[in-house]
Specification:
- By secondary structure, this protein is an alpha+beta fold.
- It is built from 21 helices and 25 strands.
- Strands 1, 3, 4, 7, 9, 10 and 12 form a seven-stranded mixed beta sheet that branches. Strands 14, 15, 16, 17, 18, 19 and 20 form a seven-stranded mixed beta sheet that branches.
- It is elongated.
- The protein starts with a helix and ends in a 7-residue tail after the last helix.
- The structure holds adenosine-5'-diphosphate.
- Residues 546-547, 550, 578, 580-581, 583, 591, 597-598, 602, 608-614, 637 line the site of adenosine-5'-diphosphate.
Length: 795
């Protein structure tokens, strides 16, 4: 169906071209004028006929059109351009004037005929049987009073008239050529009219396509894709539009009859020279390595030189440039496909379309040149198809180029992102490892009855180390969120417990500032829910930490309400309310952006990176809710969000935050031997000290291979295994131990985040993870759990 439609359109366009500029297929041979007379009495005018053949010619004379006959200077083969032609042994110049005469014998008929007059070089006046029938511009015997004009004209021949005496005055004092190049056609009025309309419609349609295409690519270039090839193609398309509308059929001149010849002729030549120049440049930017620099330079220099000539020189000069320029076009027709072929062979993006388009280009130029040299009629429908194919294929080249560039940019961006996140991971790992020693040592010293003044100094040291750790963690976290690497757990959690744990953890901070830290939990919140306890804890503690930080007097309140719940769903309204410094309206918009603080003095006064809220916001967004703020400067702030959870029946009693363990000072690990596998001597020192303080015996292996060698399951009850070590890493060592039938608990010690290593830890047979730098309490809890199985296992 589609193919049929396309085929019909093709036929229609083809018929358009033959109709307008006629193969007179049915009436061969086409009658020719002889000795100034053309006999059309046997014609039916099924197709239009050119009034070609021998016309009478009078050089430098305007013969009285009323005269029935006048002895002619000579007979010329019409259409006839006199510039450079020889008449009676004399070579005529381009400038001058002349009369052409022809008698047309017509049959008796019942149809109105129409004569279609093309443009002439460069003004004419046509008389039929002594009366003016058409004119273009103003003829004259000298440049004085002469006005050139090119426009399509047509007039009717009534039914009763059987003889037409055509007297055509042509004058030229501006163009390098003089006379007339295109045939005058006679035919049935309806058909001539239809032909003209079809020609105009095709020209308008093609102009519209090119213009819109040009604007589209111009927009693409201006909107950010600064690819010069795209700009040049856009300019070429727009410039070439003029060649379609303002040349040949002169549809533009029909629409705007008042156009000045001196302007339009300049534009006609300029757009040709410039158009080819732009196309040459475009090809050069498209495939710079496939085009000869010299050929490109020569062609473009000529094009731009000729363009400059068309801009500044008089018409009689620049119109002479057309023939050398057409020779250059012939070279381009051959050379451009060669460039595209090379590009295709060298596998350039979109070169296959470029190569196909060069076929269309050769086709269009061949048709245009053959018509220009009057070898064939205009074949407008066929050249329309050629033009459309050419521009369409070139658009594909550019689309391909844009998507290729985009793909490359995306690849680079992804590589950049990966490099950044790898870098941050490595850096954070490297920073966390020495921090482990600093924090661990501070704890040890604090536990060894230091002097009072030393306690203060150690507190500062510990506070700073923890602060640094929080910053590193924030950066790492944000990096992960941005890279989309964050996964949420979907496990049982007790929202109320998490909130009270946050309060317990930050109570000291609040007390130190002399403010109250309160928690209000709705009585309706009874059942545990499905969620991510780690992330929930992170959001709450971040908000509460901020609230304490920015409040000098009054209180900080965590309020958890239950606006609605059903059998399996519960909605929680969580608010962190403070009576602190508040946030101005203007700053309320920006503080959720990363690295943004309400004002620059904040970081000086309170410290912080400006990442905390950005992280909270993203964590909540990824869980389908929105962190909101209402605040008044000087009065306080409320950060709040409403989150839906699935309820679960209280099943396994989890006590992640509140197991009562024996006091570590009582040395509860007495009699327990632990194998510590760690390559960093500082970390060995820290862990060793803690473990010994808690009563354990410690054997140390400096890498996985050594651990395999030392491990004695009759002696060791637990392995603490660093993951990244030389010789053999912790994963491999754990795998081998499990393969050897070792069943004692193996706990990973790592400076990576749990989510980064969790999967491999599990698959390697490790039982749990302790994150470095570790809090002594956490390490203690995990060891107790794994050694004695007292249910204190927590993440
Ligand atoms: P940080 O606290 O590390 O600077 P945040 O992203 O947590 O980064 O906070 C960004 C900014 O928002 C803070 O610097 C502060 O200006 C403002 N802000 C956050 N919470 C509060 C609050 N409770 N009261 C007043 N200002 C706040």
């Amino acid at each position: 169906m589609k193919i049929k439609a396309v085929f019909s359109l093709f036929l229609l366009l083809l018929s358009g071209s033959t109709l307008s500029y006629g193969f007179s297929g049915g009436q061969l041979p086409v009658p020719q004028a002889r000795a100034g007379v053309i006999d059309l009495r046997l014609q039916t005018f099924e197709d239009k006929l050119p009034l070609d053949g021998q016309w009478q010619f009078y050089w430098q004379q305007f013969v009285d059109p009323v005269l029935k006959s006048a002895p002619a200077d000579t007979l010329v083969q019409f259409p006839f351009m006199w510039g450079g032609s020889t008449v009676k042994g004399q070579t005529l110049p381009g400038f001058g004037y002349a009369t052409y005469r022809l008698t047309v014998l017509l049959p008796k008929r019942d149809k109105i005929l129409r004569i279609a007059m093309p443009d002439a070089y460069s003004a004419y006046q046509l008389f039929v049987n002594g009366r003016e029938a058409a004119a273009n511009g103003h003829i004259s015997t000298s440049a004085h009073g002469f006005v050139p004009h090119w426009q399509y004209r047509a007039f009717d021949v009534e039914k009763g008239i059987d003889t037409l005496r055509l007297t055509l005055y042509i004058a030229n004092f501006v163009h390098s050529k003089g006379g007339i190049k295109k045939p005058i056609y006679i035919g049935e009025k309806v058909k001539i009219e239809l032909g003209r309309q079809q020609a105009a419609a095709i020209d308008l349609m093609l102009t519209g396509c090119l213009f819109m295409g040009g604007l589209f690519f111009l927009g693409l270039y201006l909107m950010g894709n600064r690819d010069r090839a795209i700009l040049l193609f856009a300019l070429y398309s727009i410039v070439y539009c003029y060649r379609i509308l303002g040349v040949d059929n002169y549809v533009l001149h029909t629409i705007l009859p008042g156009l000045d010849w001196y302007l339009t002729a300049r534009l006609e030549y300029l757009t040709l020279f410039l158009g080819i120049g732009l196309f040459g440049l475009y090809t050069r930017y498209l495939y710079p390595d496939d085009i000869s620099k010299t050929a490109h330079w020569v062609v473009n220099s000529i094009c731009f030189l000729f363009s400059a000539a068309a801009l500044v020189l008089p018409a009689s000069w620049f119109t002479q440039l057309i023939n050398p320029f057409l020779a250059l076009c012939l070279f381009c027709i051959v050379y451009t496909p060669y460039v595209y072929f090379r590009a295709y062979k060298n596998k350039r993006p979109g070169a296959v379309y470029a190569l196909a388009s060069s076929g269309a280009l050769m086709y269009v130029f061949t048709i245009t040149l053959l018509h220009y040299w009057s070898i064939t009629p205009q074949l407008q429908g066929l050249s329309f198809i050629g033009y459309i194919s050419f521009f369409f294929l070139q658009s594909l080249v550019l689309s391909h180029r844009v998507s290729f560039a985009l793909g490359k940019a995306r690849q680079q961006a992804e590589q950049g992102l990966k490099a950044k996140s790898d870098f941050l991971s490595t850096m954070s790992h490297e920073i966390r490892t020495p921090l482990n020693s600093v924090i661990g040592m501070s704890h040890l010293l604090l536990g060894n009855n230091p002097r009072k003044d030393q306690v203060k100094q150690l507190d500062v040291m510990l506070y700073s180390a923890n602060h640094l750790l929080a910053i590193v963690n924030d950066i790492l976290d944000y990096n992960k969120i941005e890279a989309g690497k964050i996964n949420f757990e979907h496990i049982e959690m007790n929202f109320g417990d998490i909130a009270s744990h946050v309060v317990t953890g930050l109570q000291d901070d609040a007390q130190r500032k002399g403010i109250a830290l309160k928690l209000e939990i709705d009585g309706d919140l009874k059942s545990p829910v499905l969620g991510d306890p780690t992330r929930t804890f992170q959001v709450l503690s971040n908000l509460v930490h901020n609230a304490i930080k920015f409040t000098a007097t009054g209180y900080v309140l965590i309020s958890i309400r239950v606006p609605q719940q059903s059998a399996n769903k519960i909605t929680l309204d969580v608010r962190v309310i403070d009576t602190g410094i508040g946030i101005s309206k203007g700053h309320q918009q920006i503080i959720f952006d990363r690295f943004t603080q309400a004002d620059s003095s904040t970081s000086r006064g309170f410290g912080g990176t400006g990442l905390g809220l950005a992280i909270c916001k993203r964590i909540l967004e990824l869980q389908g809710t929105r962190l909101q703020l209402s605040s008044e400067e000087g009065k306080g702030s409320v950060f709040y969000f409403t989150q839906d959870f699935e309820k679960i029946a209280e099943s396994i009693k989890q006590q992640p935050f509140g197991v009562v363990l024996p006091d570590p000072q009582q040395k509860p690990l007495k009699g327990i031997t632990i194998l510590l596998v760690e390559d960093n001597p500082m970390n060995v020192l820290v862990a060793n000290n803690f473990l010994k303080n808690w009563g354990a015996e410690v054997d140390v292996a400096l890498n996985g291979a050594e651990a395999l060698h030392i491990l004695d399951t009759t002696k060791h009850q637990l392995v603490l295994m660093d993951l990244q070590m030389p010789v053999m890493d912790g994963y491999e060592a754990a795998r081998r131990m499990r393969a050897d039938g070792v069943t004692i608990p193996i706990v990973a010690l790592t400076a990576n985040l749990p989510s980064e290593v969790a999967e491999e830890v599990k698959s390697s047979g490790l039982d749990d993870i302790v994150i470095k730098p570790f809090l002594p309490g956490d390490l203690y809890k995990k060891i107790m759990y794994h050694v004695f199985g007292n249910g204190s296992k927590s993440k």
